[in-house]
Amino acid sequence: MNSIDIDIYMSNLINFFEKNPNDLIVLIGELQKDEFYNRLRDICEKNLKDGKDITISKEQMINVILDLKIPEIKKQKDNYINKIIQKTKFGDIILN
């Protein structure tokens, strides 16, 4: 019975974001929404297993978003650093 509650909760969450795609883009950016939904479902199942309410708290939502965005942020940072540092045959030159 409880997995049905999770299915209903996730269905409502997905329907909300399907009807409001801009809210999803603001929340997770260009990340894979399927991965986002899978992680949210995992949290709901964990909450159920721990005897808590299946709804996702703000803190849990933030943790999922950060877990998904940190690799993307690191990649952008690396690209930025590579633009500042010019690698030449004489060594690295920092364009500051």
Name a few traits of the molecule.
single chain, 96 residues, mainly alpha, two-stranded antiparallel sheet, 4 helices, 73% helix, elongated
Describe this structure in words.
With 96 residues, the chain is mainly alpha-helical. The protein has one domain. It is built from four helices and two strands; from the N terminus they run ααααββ. It has a two-stranded antiparallel sheet with strand order 1-2. Strand 1 and strand 2 form a beta hairpin. The radius of gyration is 20 Å and the shape is elongated. The N and C termini lie far apart (61 Å).
Low-confidence stretches: none
Helix share, percent: over 70%
Number of helices: 4
Distance separating the two termini:
61 Å
Strand arrangement across the biggest beta sheet: 1-2
- What fraction of residues sit in β-strands? 5-15%
From the alpha carbons, calculate the radius of gyration and give it in angstroms. 20 Å
Number of strands: 2
What general outline do the C-alpha atoms trace?
elongated
Mean pLDDT: 81
Largest beta-sheet characterization: 2 strands, antiparallel
- Class based on secondary structure composition and strand pairing: mainly alpha
Total domain modules: 1
Order of helices and strands: HHHHEE
